[in-house]
Amino acid sequence: MSEDGVSDKELKVSAIKEGTVIDHIPCENAFRIVRVLELQKTEDVVTLGINFKSGKMGKKGVIKIGRRFLSREETDKIALLAPDAVLNIIKDYKVTEKIRPEIPDVITGTVKCSNPNCVTNHGEAAQRFNVVSRKPLSLRCAYCERLTGEDEITFL
Amino acid sequence: MKFKGVHIISVRDFGKDDILYILDCAARMEEKRRPALMAGRVMASLFFEPSTRTRLSFDSAMRRLGGSVVGFSSPKATSLAKGESLKDTIRMVEGYSDVIVMRHPLDGSARLASEISRVPVINGGDGTNQHPTQTFLDLYTIRKCKGRLEGLKIGFVGDLKYGRTVHSLAEALKHFGAEMYFISLDELRMPGTHLDDLAAHGVRCHETSDIEGVIGLLDILYATRIQQERFPDPVEYERVKGAFVIDGMLLEKAKPDLKVMHPLPRRDEIAEEVDDSDFAVYFEQARNGIPVRQALLALVTGAIE
Predict the structure, then answer these.
(1) Which CATH number fits domain B11-131+289-301: 3.30.300.30, 3.40.50.10190, 3.10.129.10, 3.40.50.1370?
(2) What is the dihedral of CA A31, A34, A35, A39, to 10 degrees?
């Protein structure tokens, strides 16, 4: 029990009946993921925690989202911001599936090119990137060839 | 690589062997006139923004091979002024021609055109991104005047930040074990992403603002123009453009067989007194655009293999 009388387990887990728990998020990107998934607009309970101890990462972030399962497109976005993330699919308080999002070789239609003069930012073509490196993340626009790093990523 | 039907969009698409093959074909084009090689073939020349050298040399290259040219040199007089998309323009033009040469102000426009067109597209410059035929003619010039591409010490001076010719040439030269010296003011340095990429390929790179300190080491000095439009403050522009002037006094410290290149047009980067010296190869470099573009036109249309 912690000092305020709430059990550690309750504090850290606050189990959800149904939904998704995103684990192993780099702390610095936890708030970005909240924004990208637009969790501030959801009606259901969302719990965000950062600076949890992690054997693998040192510190990690965790986001729990009640009654929400992520689309493929959303999973692809998480892969870019949290390459080690694990998505736990919860049904009836149990983890029924673990998904490890992977960065594909080609990323289409999710990331905006950071070059304002790129043909994709002028309505002529859909965004497409070739993944040059996963760690550190580096994407090359298939059209203007400009490199985009993790810090510069903006989603469509 | 079989070149028939291949689009020429970016130097990044071509390996060392491909580059050497293109240069060999260009050398054959220069050796012997072939006035009927492209007879009956049509090149569409789509210049969505102005260009003198690139447009004229492609026109000349095609006509000297017996082909003909249709197109425009400014979008103002075309249906683009009526708001036609690039995609629709390409779909129309591919029906009128065997090869499309295109210059367009947007980065990536040439790649997009190549994804739509059923005839080969040759990029004549897409925004600030790529200008591959310039790179091939630069490589051709280097090989012609130095007898080799391997193991040269090459200096780049001027606008290394925005100069697409510098970026592309450095990218291509990484296949040939070049040692590179990037000479610029702080505000016009070679972008870090390019330097990282070169370093990852084992290229020895040096950055300096001291041209006198390195001029004696170089086999090639590649100068570029500093574009006035990058500097809204005229005082600032005067300062940066005067920072590196290649003149007789500087070249006294150079190796006697140093060659000075420039993609042209030049402003004040190279003093006129250099033009008649053995150092100057920039006008020959412009002339080399003809055999190189002839080779590319003939290769992608399948007129030669």
Answers:
(1) 3.40.50.1370
(2) -150
B177 to chain A, any CB pair closer than 8 A? The answer is: no
DSSP per residue over B271-286, as a string?
A: -GGGTTSTTB-HHHHH
Best of A144, A147, A151 to substitute, by most chain B Cβ atoms within 10 angstroms, is A144
ipTM: 0.90
Which of A120, A125, A144 lies nearest to residue B129, judging by beta carbons? A144
**How many Å separate Cα A23 from the centre of its chain?**
10
Which architecture, in CATH terms, is B132-286? 3-Layer(aba) Sandwich (3.40)
User: Model pTM?
Assistant: 0.89
Q: Which residue of B has its CA nearest to A115?
A: B107
What are the residues whose beta carbons fall under 8 Å from the beta carbon of A9, sequence distance 6 or more? Answer: none
Q: Does residue A39 sit at the B interface (CB-CB below 8 Å)? A: no
Which chain B residues are within 8 Å of A147, Cβ to Cβ? 193
Identical topology for domains B11-131+289-301 and B132-286: yes
Could you state, in chain order, the average pLDDT of each consecutive group of 10 residues for chain B (305 residues)? 96 97 98 96 95 94 98 77 84 96 96 98 95 98 97 96 93 96 95 92 96 98 89 86 92 98 93 97 97 98 96
Separation CA B216–CA B213 (nearest Å): 7
